[in-house]
Amino acid sequence: MSEKKDDSIPSIKVVLLGEMGVGKTNLINAYCNRQFNSQSFSTTSPEFSQKKIKIDNKNYLIDLWDTAGQEKYRSMTKIFIKGAQLIIFVYDITKEDSFQKLNFWVNFVEELLWENSYYGVVGNKSDLFESQVVNSNDGKKFADDIGALFCQTSAKEDQDGFKKYVENLVRKLIKKNNIINGIGDKLSKKTNNSKNGCSC
Ligand code: GDP
Ligand code: MG
User: Fold this and answer.
1) In angstroms, rounded to a whole number, what is the distance separating the alpha carbons of residues 63 and 83?
2) Which residues lie near ion ligand 2 (Cβ < 5 Å)?
3) What average pLDDT does range 91-98 have in this prediction?
4) Is 68 helix (H, G, I), strand (E, B) or coil?
């Protein structure tokens, strides 16, 4: 689907990273389409969704990039991370391994990012609290250590949770870069050439 480009609105590139199966695709779907899919389809190439938001009376386009967690797609993922202003590391609260792997993902992005980018850490699947193995304090500590904003949520049962969280992250990013006073044009206005675009 082709996107009509509006150059007057700054766009913020947000990339979700994490192991396969942690819920990246469903978090984006919850945000953009208020949908949850109980089946698992593996994401192979980075996919893009767009959302317009208003913060302090100014419009922003949030470009949400979904990526593949699998190793064989990592070189492609690397290309799509470049220029991201927000990177959200996602783990599954019921899978310790998906949390341990966040160290890998943090190293993976470190040399690729714009110096003023901002991190988030999301523990997903909070509806499965009975099977929780990663304590939210550990998630929060990990986030604090890398200077990220933490959130524990569920793409399945708290569809507004991720939306509110992303908007908080955008606020932090804007504050960090003093974008409110017009310096925000530092934010990239580039759009993309993905054929998987959806507008929401
Ligand atoms: P991705 O590989 O990180 O994109 O993960 P998906 O979004 O494809 O989700 C993988 C599997 O986890 C699917 O079967 C989803 O239905 C399930 N899933 C994703 N988010 C949640 C959630 O918040 N709660 C529960 N119970 N299942 C979830
Ligand atoms: Mg996926």
Assistant:
1) 12
2) 24-25, 43
3) 98
4) coil
Q: Does residue 23 line the site of ligand 1, with CB under 6 A?
A: yes
Strands in the chain per DSSP E? 11-17, 47-55, 58-66, 86-92, 118-124, 149-152, 198-199
Encode pLDDT of 127-148 as tens digits: 999 999 999 999 999 999 999 9
Q: If you take atom 20 of ligand 1, which residue's CA is the nearest one?
A: 23
Q: Could you tell me the sign of the dihedral formed by the alpha carbons of 183, 186, 189, 194, in that order?
A: negative
Residue 40, classified by CB atoms within 10 Å of its CB into exposed (0-12), middle (13-18) or buried (19+), is exposed
> pLDDT digits over 107-120, tens only?
988 877 666 789 99
Report the separation in Å between the CA atom of 37 and the middle of ligand 2, taken as the mean of its atom positions: 11
- SS3 string of 22-38? CCHHHHHHHHHHCCCCC
- Greatest distance between any 2 Cα atoms in the chain: 47
- What's the token pair of residue 140? 């929060």
DSSP annotation of 3 reads P
> CA triplet 87, 124, 67: central angle to 5 degrees?
40
SS3 assignment, position 125: coil
Q: What is the DSSP letter of 134?
A: S
CA 159 to chain centre: 14
